[in-house]
Amino acid sequence: xxxxxxxxxxxxxxxxxxxxxxxxxxxxxxxxxxxxxxxxxxxxxxxxxxxxxxxxxxxxxxxxxxxxxxxxxxxxxxxxxxxxxxxxxxxxxxxxxxxxxxxxxxxxxxxxxxxxxxxxxxxxxxxxxxxxxxxxxxxxxxxxxxxxxxxxxxxxxxxxxxxxxxxxxxxxxxxxxxxxxxxxxxxxxxxxxxxxxxxx
Length: 200
Fold this sequence. Notes:
Shape: globular
Number of strands: 12
Mean pLDDT: 88
Number of helices: 2
CATH superfamily: Lipoprotein localisation LolA/LolB/LppX
CATH architecture: Clam
Helix content: 10-25%
């Protein structure tokens, strides 16, 4: 009986990986706006933000959060820059291939890497498919991540961490498979900015 249970779980995982792979593989570029809401475990609002994002497979991302919480995250597929204009500081890291520290990169990432580093399940109802991703490693920013697609296009994302804090990200005005200027994924530190190389 345990063998049958494991087999069933593996089959469900493979079905989820296949569905997610099909959705991600059909989308080479995504651009749009987002709104982000962070709540604590009691549902009290901690933070609200909005911004713009563009991404291109594989591994290219530009994620700009508007003031007053302005930040810019840029990935060129090898390195990730996180720029904080208020602090006049940019942190540069190698891109974590597990994608557990930069969840938005999941949308432009290598599906084989995703299936290696997450347990994946899904539910489907009408035009909506929800995927629940649970990291297999412990040193992650979140305990679970939900990706929700509507009519084959990413609609929203929800992250839940170990203390019950929940971050909801809603995507709006989403355009898929439109040409994107390669300069979007290049970061040049402004003059006078402190550059911190983390683990390079």
